[in-house]
Amino acid sequence: MRKAIAVMKKDFNEIKKNFQVFGVMIILPVIFGVVYPLILYFIIPSLVLEDPAALNMIINMFSGFFLLMAISIPVVVAADSFAGEKERKTIEALLAAPISDAELFLGKVLVSFLPAVILTYISAIIYCSLVNIALGYFLLPNSAFWFQMALVPLFALLGIEITVFISVRVKGFREAQQLAGVIIIPVLGIVMLNAFNISVFVAPWNYILLISIGISDIALYSLAVKKFGRENIISKI
Q1: What's the pTM?
Q2: Alpha carbons 91 and 228: distance in angstroms, whole number
Q3: Phi first, then psi: what are they for 142, rounded to 5°?
Q4: Which residues, in sequence order, are CB contacts of 230 under 8 Å at separation 6+?
Q5: Rounded CA gap, 64 and 20, in Å?
Q6: Residue 21 phi/psi, 5° resolution?
Q7: Rounded Cα gap, residues 69 and 152, in angstroms
Q8: Furthest-apart CA pair in the chain: how many Å?
Q9: 220 and 111 Cβ atoms separated by less than 8 Å
Q10: Domain edges within the chain
């Protein structure tokens, strides 16, 4: 575990130097956690009286954006952490380090997973607080929102695992990011359905979704570790 944490710290130092990656980690939480709630803060008082249905749709849509954030951040970070190593020509030295494939993979997962989950939860807290203050009563988090928060780490891990499969095969960060970005589309579909009150965050669909993503994470993790093995990576350099 100590070696995995060392890999995580090394990668995080690299990420801080790359504005294209680090910028996403800063901009998305600001947009979803501050800008959108402030918009709601100013429009809620008028919508409460004029169009409650529109208010409900906007709140549902903005609430769902946190799942987009939970999968967008790890996809960008993981693309840099895995494929970016090839682009920077640092992958050979990393593969020669005295560390097991499992520890190396875990370290790279943590640097993508932890910032995504932490930043998503912090943004969600700010969002709920501003919405409740604007409404003048307690609305969020409701049961559907709690369920979305339970899905955050599962979606983050799923995004990382899929990015691993892509990053092993491509040559650089941009290509990995573009291909991995496709997995955001199904999540965007869930968000839009939720905005129009066609929600998967109610029983029994919420449990089906939770179990499905959980099983997928477990199954893909072991495959991703094998795919990230030194032999597979060396053969693609």
Answers
A1: 0.86
A2: 12
A3: -95, -175
A4: 95, 101
A5: 24
A6: -90, -50
A7: 9
A8: 65
A9: no
A10: 2-236
The answer to whether the CB of 177 falls within 8 A of the CB of 162 is: no
Q: Poorest-confidence range of 28-37, 119-128, 154-163, 209-218? A: 28-37
pLDDT band of 235, cuts 50, 70, 90? low
Neighbours of 174 (CB within 10 A): 15
Distance CA 160, CA 112 (A): 7
Q: At what angle do helices 2-16 and 19-30 cross, to 10 degrees?
A: 90
Average per-residue pLDDT in the chain? Answer: 82
With 0-12 CB in 10 A as exposed, 13-18 as middle and 19+ as buried, what is 13?
exposed
Tokens of 224: 């991703």
Name which of 72, 81, 87, 105 is nearest 180 in CA terms: 72
Sort 41 into a burial class: Cβ within 10 Å, 0-12 / 13-18 / 19+. Answer: middle
Backbone angles phi, psi at 179, to 5 degrees: -70, -45
Secondary structure (H, E, C), the chain: CHHHHHHHHHHHHHHHCCHHHHHHHHHHHHHHHHHHHHHHHHHHHHHHHHCHHHHHHHHHHHHHHHHHHHHHHHHHHHHHHHHHHHHCCCHHHHHCCCCCHHHHHHHHHHHHHHHHHHHHHHHHHHHHHHHHHHHCCCCCCCHHHHHHHHHHHHHHHHHHHHHHHHHHHCCCHHHHHHHHHHHHHHHHHHHHHHHCCCCCCCCCHHHHHHHHHHHHHHHHHHHHHHHCCHHHHHHHC
